Amino acid sequence: MSDKSDTTFKEQQDRYRDTVFLPRTGFPMRGGLPKREPETLARWAAMDLDGKIREEGKGRPVFTLHDGPPYANGHIHIGHALNKVMKDVINRAHRMSGFEVRYQPGWDCHGLPIEWRIEEQYRKAGKDKDQVPLLQFRAECRQYAAEWVSKQAEDFKRIGVQAEWANRYVTMDYSSEAKIVGEIGKFLLNGGLYRGLRPVMWSPVEKTALAEAEIEYHDVDSTTIFVAFPIIKDPTPGDALDGVSAVIWTTTPWTIPANRALAYGPDITYVVLRADEITEASVVPQGARLLIAEDRVEAFCAETGISAHHILYTLPGSALEGAIAAHPLRGRGYEYDVPMLPGDFVTTDAGTGLVHMAPSHGQDDFIVCRQFGIEVPELVQDDGRYASWVPHLEGIHVFKAADPVCDLLTEARQSGEHDDAPATGLMARSKIRHSYPHSWRSKAPIIFRATPQWFIAMDGETKLREKALKALDPVTFVPEAARRRLTSMVEQRPDWCISRQRAWGVPIAVFVEKRSGEVLRDADVMDRIVKAFHEKGADVWYDTDPAVFLGPNRDPADYEQVFDIVDVWFESGSTHQFVLGQEGLNFPADVYLEGSDQHRGWFQSSLLESVGTRGVAPYKALVTNGFVLDEQGRKMSKSLGNVIAPSDVTDSLGADILRLWVLNSDTNEDLRIGNEILKQQGELYRRLRNTLRWLLGALDGFTEEETVPYAEMPPLEQYILHRLSELRGLISTAVETHQWVGVYPALHGFCTTDLSAFYFDIRKDAIYCDAPSDLTRRASRTVLDALHRALCTWLAPVLVFTAEEAWSARFGEESSIHLEQFFEPDAEWNNPELGANWDEIRAYRRLVTTELETARRDGVIGASLEASVTLPISQEEAASLTGIDWAELLITSHAEIELLPGETAHGGPQVERAPGHKCARCWKVLPDVGESAEHPALCRRCVSVVSA
């Protein structure tokens, strides 16, 4: 075409530009989410959207997701955001599926995290916490927690979480504290609560017992030692143990002073070996006779420097029954006989096959020693230092005790060698790097320490373990693999230690009779305590005469008032009691949803607490999400500089991008986040937004009068509606199962592949150029109306701000998408046979469009509208591929089917330039362009439209 003809064509285009029905909408291409989202939040607050949602829900079936309370301590992190967005999606989806959903957000406000912060403030100010009156300290903790409850609530609102923010629950409300102490009372009265001496995980820094859920593991370097215990009573018939020393290996030298027994494996084979030759570095006395497991001989000799040895005796573990050794520090203040006891936990995986038993500092040690009537000494104080009565070690911290203990054991060995006695004391010393428990708050290592604590019995008359496991049978787990994780933890856990030696929390408000040491189990006393807590809060326990609680018939002088506070996991585990069962809140809750670490935390404590006091699990389903890692799969930490905070994302990209990241991830596994990943989510968001924008523009001026009944629609429209019905099925399944992984990637794929790259592309011609009354255009706009309503409602649980914007752009700002129900496709739209047929059509179309692209690349055509295509198809394919306007489907100006004879398979499509001229309005190349004298640059269809 010449330059002159190009100019003429452009002039003709300009002439008819206003007759083309191009999309028009005020919905902007760019989201501008960081600025727009706070404006939307303000609009929702002004219209009292939360109140409207509450009113709309009344009278509907109830769905309840009970919120696990985060600590009111610092701004929310990305894990909080992940968890709250997942909860919000589930809540919104159920609300839009016809349920009443009351979501009461909650906060954990007691315990060490908050105490620790106040103590940090004291340390910075040079104040001594012990000099601050207790009630003043508690008041400062309460104020600190209240401030962070408000700040975190704003953080959660900013990421689009809908909740009854004015009706939140916190564990420090007086009513909550009363409920918690009431739950303690139920365990007291049913016999489940008792005080006992047991080893617990103890933080010397925080001076309190810790729960398993308060522990994290880090690698540390520990001193390891081999220690010889000379045997002083030999039960073997042939005196095989005469002059022999049993050798143990330990990674905790500081526990040697607390040793009271040795454990052997009854089914393990042991040997008495004689150290014939030793290396220069070895300290093993030459000629020493040492008892170890047969399987450990080679490793033991290598580690202790024994270069040549001789096996004197081989004997079964059962032969050790009745043997007694002397403490290796005998003669130095440790005059204890050390019996050898059977232990089914003894292995030959490491060490010597003999285990040193310190009942004050190990669970197995404690159980076995108590079983055989051995005392449990208290040698370590609450700050981790040896008590004044520990010979040679008074005041030394256990984590600095390796050298002093090894020095004592070396002296013992040297003294034994001097006296030509059996080997005793230190045989070897080394280092090992291994995983060791730490407090997740102070980051300091912990110890096992036997102290008097309050426990809830897992077994015995209450049969709590058995009942809890049975209560889990009907519970749904998402993913199902999580079931075994929780059940195994319940099966294996010890009695529940619920006492903490701290100040900020709900006290274990009970009395112990001084004369008998028995806890007072009196329902009337408990009722008075609960009533006082309800009126004045937990502080009443500290500033009220005990006589008020004990009543007129008991003398306070006869009773010890307990001031330990209850484990915060017990508190949060009790929240079902003061949240659920109200109007619009089911008990049991339909769902508890938290991170996978909560199988040992809130999921478990809630189960035990509820089964113990109400006989049932507090939830019908447990949904678990993974942890958030950086893009390289590393844990986030400030030192690595890889922390992504929710505020970073909302300030730069918007909350909807953050929410989209959550739902585009496999939340059953650990998730990754970083700038590149968020950039990818931004691109996915842009495509979704463009889909909504084109829909709104193409629906400009749409009215109900345009609507075309389904039966009168072209097959393409019926197919798109079938795809809508399939997607609704996917969403319905997610609502029922709480399994949302894959749903929003499928929605995104529908928008990009089925709509933008297929349906929209094909129907642009009809939308832009057909007459408003044309059936195809009307049918298409009818489908676009359904698409807009469907996508807005289906995207609303995730893209809470963008879906609102796209809805309000069409229906006005006085409306809200969050008061709507999910769009429901008509039942007749679901047509699997039609869907299968269109799968074949689209597959063939992909083949043809590949040929069109080749023709364009080879210069045969410019755009696809310049093409005329001949499609050779077989007789077998005719049923599915004929009856279709292939020119429309391929976006060409002409297409025709060529039926091949017999059983010939389809051949390659033939592409050539279409005959005729290019229409200045629709750009199709057609022979009828120029027929109209009045409109010589238009095709016949366009002439009729502009002339109407």
What are the SSEs and their pairings?
Blueprint (H helix, E strand, L loop, with lengths): L2 H14 L16 H14 L2 H9 L4 E2 L1 E2 L11 H18 L4 E2 L4 E2 L4 H14 L8 H25 L10 E2 L3 H16 L3 E11 L4 E2 L5 E19 L10 E7 L10 E4 L4 E10 L10 E5 L3 H8 L1 E11 L7 E3 L10 E6 L11 E4 L5 H9 L30 H17 L6 E15 L7 E10 L7 H9 L3 E3 L3 H11 L3 E2 L1 E2 L10 E3 L9 H14 L3 H4 L2 H5 L8 E3 L3 E2 L1 H6 L1 H5 L11 E5 L6 H13 L6 E5 L2 E2 L16 H7 L2 H9 L7 E2 L2 H24 L16 H23 L5 H27 L5 H21 L4 H12 L20 H26 L9 E7 L1 H7 L4 H5 L3 E6 L10 E4 L3 E2 L6 E2 L13 H8 L1
Parallel strand pairs: 1-3, 2-25, 4-5, 9-12, 10-15, 19-26, 25-26, 27-28, 29-30
Antiparallel strand pairs: 6-7, 6-18, 8-9, 8-14, 8-17, 10-16, 11-12, 11-13, 14-15, 18-20, 21-24, 22-23, 29-31, 32-33
Question: What's the number of extended β-strand segments?
Answer: 33
The averaged pLDDT comes out at 92
List low-confidence stretches: none
The amount of beta strand, in percent, is 15-25%
Number of helices: 29
Largest sheet: 10 strands, mixed
The outline comes out as elongated
End-to-end separation in angstroms reads: 31 Å
The amount of helix comes to 40-55%
The class by helix and strand makeup works out as alpha/beta
Can you characterise this structure?
The chain has 948 residues and is an alpha/beta fold. Helices cover 40% and strands 18% of the residues. It is built from 29 helices and 33 strands. Strands 8, 9, 10, 11, 12, 13, 14, 15, 16 and 17 form a ten-stranded mixed beta sheet that branches. A hairpin with a 4-residue loop joins β6 (193-203) and β7 (208-209). α22 (715-737) runs parallel beside α24. The protein is elongated. It starts with a helix and ends with a helix. The relative contact order is 0.11.
